[in-house]
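Hi there,

I know you've been waiting on this one. I reran it after we fixed the sequence typo, so this is the corrected version. Both the input and the resulting structure follow.
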Amino acid sequence: MKEMNWFSDAHYGLFIHWGLYSLMGGVHEGKEIPYGAEWIQKNAGIPLHEYRKLAARFNPVKFDAAEVVRRAKKWGMKYIVFTAKHVDGFAMYDSKVSSYNIMHTPYRQDPLRALADECEKQGLMLGIYYSQNQDWEDPNGWGNELDFPPNSEKDFAKYFHEKALPQVKELLTNYGKVGLMWFDTPYSMPKELCEELRAAVNALQPNCLINGRIGYNLGDYREMADNEIPVLPYEKPWETPMTLNQTWGYSSVDEHWKSPAEVIERLVEVVEKGGNLLLNVGPDGLGNIPEGSCAVLDEVGAWLEKNGESIYGTAGVPAFPYQNRWGHITRKGTRLYLHVFRYPDFPYEILLCNLRQKVRKVTLLETGEALTFYQSYEIGRNEYRFRVILPEKPERPSWDTVVCAECESAELSFEPLA
């Protein structure tokens, strides 16, 4: 059995989408290309021989692995997932399997090596993204119908055994401890090859987690659809990958950043339902993380510095009988954390119905200020009520005011609706 505790306790990770596409910034021949800047080769219909020319000018001299890891820690992330090879087939590491890699650019450095070293030094878990099925540079890989038409003969097993599997083995052999392998878009990849891929990961690094997109329920945890949060709690380990704007790779024209409040509420909602949020940044062609990303994540990190107790190491909350209009709930041991995103007007009261636990005390998590609360049971309606009186509404309330309710029992129980 693999060790899942680090993943289940972390709840928050940093995704990094970075590659040749970053040079284009989502724009081709003066036009913005929709549906993901990292897919610009396919979506703009750029022939492979043209796209490959980007490697001759890829020189991300501003990339600083130590600073990236330092910032991730400041932002409150507990792990990093780096795109070692995306769907375009270009390896962002020193691969001996294929010359289509970053060592054959003017940069001639291995950013994954630097990130792996810094994660070990600064205490973050390293995860590696690898596109195992799609590879638009290899004639036997999946996805490039412009250069390799569907009616052309393909030998996918040849691609898998001569490129994909050997590169995964490189990644798991040459970069120290890898916390997870993040596979993507298995589509119709044969199940037996997915099983072979899983076996290789488990043989090389037995404790390396495998995400659900290896295919066929062979992963160690469920990978939800991009930017999607399940409606109900999901009892098995899971993760939602999410963008900060509307694309994964760097875009020079997409400034639609989520606000700090939106990021925090999405994080809390994911944690409430027992999952992890893997939030993405897309460095530009020089290796800079966009300032718009940093500005948002700095604010989220500052909130987590004060309220992280309500996120890290918490457990999911069972499906609740009512929607809590003021926000969401997380829990740890005997503590319930009530995340108030919509601060009430006078008399500044929030209500939680059907909580059967006896509550001993209630405080504001950030300050420790004791709050007045009431518990009652209405026999006629068969309904428990837990009310908390918040301080007078400040002029600028926090994005998420966290109320800590200390219960007598750690066994969370709600009275179901009859």
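Quick highlight: The longest strand covers residues 79-85.

Best,
R. S.
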